[in-house]
Amino acid sequence: MGQCRAYEPADRAACIELLRRGHDPRFSEERFAWLHELGPGGPSCKVVVEAEGRIVGLYAVLPRPAHLDGRLITAGRDVDPVVDPDWRGKGLFTRMLDWMLASDSGVDVFYNFANPASAPGFRKRGWQEADRLADHVAQLGYRTLLGREGLLWAASRLARPPLGELPVRELSIDEVAGLSDPLPPPGRRFVVQRSAAYLAWRYGQSPLREYHSLARHDGDELVDMLVVRADPDVRRITLVDLSVYRADGGTFAAYLPYLAEQFGGCWVGVWSTVSASWRRGFVRSPRARGMPLLVRSDSGRDDLGRALGPGDCFVSHGDLEAN
To answer: Rounded to whole angstroms, how far apart are CA atoms 221 and 216?
Structure first.
């Protein structure tokens, strides 16, 4: 019924073909290299299933430095789990999870944002929900005042805090790569590091989407940096990540006037576990159920402390859409 084993470089072409068959027909060699070979935390940890002379399953984990209760650990974000359509329903996904947990991957804590189809398999193998990425929104303008846009615009205006004016400008990839590492968010037990190398790789070199890295400065001093993804055709902006470089930074709403000037009266949304103070000016989406954050310590790492719960973690939309 297929054999699980560690990925080998000779499997590369077969894995890309599998990803095209079972995940995304547009999956490219460039995307595979960026995601699995060129990350700042090193190559992904990968397990494959081989059956009848071909690769029919792939499960991969991206290693990332993180802190848990003040200790430096390696966190693993799983990406691109895929089983050949002809081999689904045979337990291959569960077998790959078990193989990864039993392997010497070097990962201390695994985390992911499993969808309804894959979440049961993770839960059966010990992953637990630590928090939910809540969906918050703001409306920068409206076409019809009495419609949904107008109502959300009015609610957004009421929620928006008074803000001082600091200039906002877009940073180049080279400027992002040259930044110092951002400050860790206060009061969070589990924080995956956002180094300058990670931010440049994740948002400046992604072959999947175009991002804008916007920064606020106070004179020559960097206060914070917001990464956004704009979809002007559908009047939508997603706030993907926020990095803070000064203790009084960390305000999504401070960027809204600039976004309105650049992109017009768009809907703006953010999925994140950031503190409520960073999200002031946004309204909780009444229809959104949130995306669960699932975590699991590696086998044999009982020394990592008590289980994580709401308010313990810091993850962003950028973590969610890593692949």
So the answer is: 9
Max Cα separation, the chain?
64
- Provide the H-helix boundaries in the chain: 12-22, 29-36, 92-102, 119-124, 148-159, 173-177, 196-199, 256-263, 317-320
The structure's pTM equals: 0.91
Residue with tokens 């019924």: 1
Which token pair is 46?
Answer: 């990968």
List Cα–Cα distances, 27 to 20, 211, 254, in angstroms: 5, 19, 36
Q: What is the pLDDT of residues 85-134, one digit of tens each?
A: 999 999 999 999 999 999 988 999 999 988 887 888 899 999 999 998 88
Amino acid letter for position 187? G
Q: What residue type is 310 in one-letter code?
A: P
Phi, psi of 145 (to 5 degrees): -60, -35
In angstroms, the CA 78 to CA 239 distance is 22
Q: Which domains does the chain have, with CATH numbers?
A: 3-107 (3.40.630.30), 133-284 (3.40.630)
Percentages helix, strand, coil for the chain (3-state, rounded to 5) are: 30, 35, 40
164-192 b/e (C-beta count within 10 Å ≥ 16 → b): eebebeebeeebbeebeebeebeebbbbb
Phi, psi of 239 (to 5 degrees): -85, 110
Rounded-to-integer distance, Cα 253 and Cα 269, Å:
11
Which helix (H) or strand (E) element contains residue 46?
Answer: strand 45-51
Asked if residues 229 and 210 have their Cβ atoms less than 8 Å apart, the reply is yes
Q: Rounded distance, CA 120 to CA 106, Å?
A: 25
CA–CA separation, 194 vs 167, rounded Å?
23
| Rounded CA Rg of the chain | 21
